[in-house]
Amino acid sequence: MSTHxxxxxxxxxxxxxxxxxxxxxxxxxxxxxxxxxxxIDDGMCTxxxxxxxxxFYTYLSSSSNPITGASDNAYSKAxxxxxxxxxxxxxxxFIVTSILFIQRPSRHRILVLLNDIFxxxxxxxxxxxxxxxxxxxxxxxxxxxxxxxxxxxxxEGMNLSSNPSMTQQPKASLLVDIGTNEARVAVSxxxxxxxxxxxxxxxxxxxxxxxxxxxxxxxxSEKWTTDATLEDVNAIVKAWMSAPKTDTSITAATxxxxxxxxxxxxxxxxxSESSTTSSTIQVLIQPLLEAFRQVYLxxxxxxxxxxxILNSALASPIDFRKVALQNIILIGGGSVALRSxxxxxxxxxxxAIKAACGVSVGDETQAMEEEKKDDGMEISPIARGRFQSxxxxxxxxxxxxxxxxxxxxxxxxxxxxxxxxxxVMGKLRLSNEDWVSASARGERLQR
Length: 447
Prior knowledge:
Layout: E1 6-11, E2 15-20, E3 28-31, E4 37-40, E5 49-52, H1 53-61, H2 73-76, H3 81-99, E6 109-114, H4 121-134, E7 139-143, H5 147-155, E8 173-178, E9 183-188, E10 200-202, H6 206-219, H7 230-242, E11 256-260, H8 262-270, E12 280-284, H9 286-297, H10 305-315, H11 318-325, E13 328-331, H12 333-337, H13 345-357, H14 363-374, H15 381-385, H16 391-394, E14 406-407, H17 417-427, E15 436-437, H18 438-446
């Protein structure tokens, strides 16, 4: 079996990455549309099949929509193993036959990367039945936890130390995976995917951020929000990140940027040529900055990313905390989309972490605290003291090495690092006991 090629598939919320183990990047990335649907036609079904990212995500996570907070009975209803088979078979049949052009599936094994740590039993049963019984693949390895199940194989070959002369892998790293709907945080140590007690999941994905931005603009009674979409909000975020940041007053409440909204473009195209309607508008940036602070930087909110990072560090053994905070790795599509936001995602998070631990309070943090006080939301002593025990781990003494350090997994792309780690994992000669074959599965069912 070790001489056969290993297929690597990552089942994400908005993207499905497909390729072979040992390759540096996926051969194909299947992207869902704005409505969350991905059209699949394996050439054998009477009609094309739709893979819905919201269905898959919500089903694995909770009974409420993580973005809006509303209950969604259509997606949260528990379904049987048979119903999952009807969902999974066209997808994997399409992958095997139309993407990878595999003629003899029995000579291949497949590694499937699942984001959820504890996927439902009937999902696992459906995956094994589809891959082993229906598609006749040689063996299957289901890896739970997404990036936290595969990144350890990538980290072992990376030099994460700030000192180039040090080639030894740090004894702990703190992985921050910002996805489409969620952000996941956990401390990883050599020889183990992650420490379970440090695992944190929060609604701080990129789509959550876009929804928060739109909500704040609507609260500000902006006229353009009447028929605005998330595509418009995404255009505003991109316009802000591409705007020059040379002006020190760029964060002032009156600062605006010029944005061409996709919805306005569509409306102007539908109007007659004599119309003078412009698709370009001036947008205040203050709601955008406030949404970023609320979702990612506000350590007083348990749903923020900074809170999850520090809470994960506190949950780790005390001798791992300092080194974990010195090796924070940003991965996931959300971290790529927001990489150049403001002063940069890394700088913004580092400053917020230091402020939360009482290391240093810059002008922007002081302004934020004064604004909260003016609004009657003064930061409580409990919130101020929650992460003070990490002050020594976050601060630097006399300019020496140390302190909080946030990095991207360069030279690997942050949004494909999960898959690359699984690619390395699938290439290694893992024990046959880890893989499930049709014969071994049959013996287990007979017991």
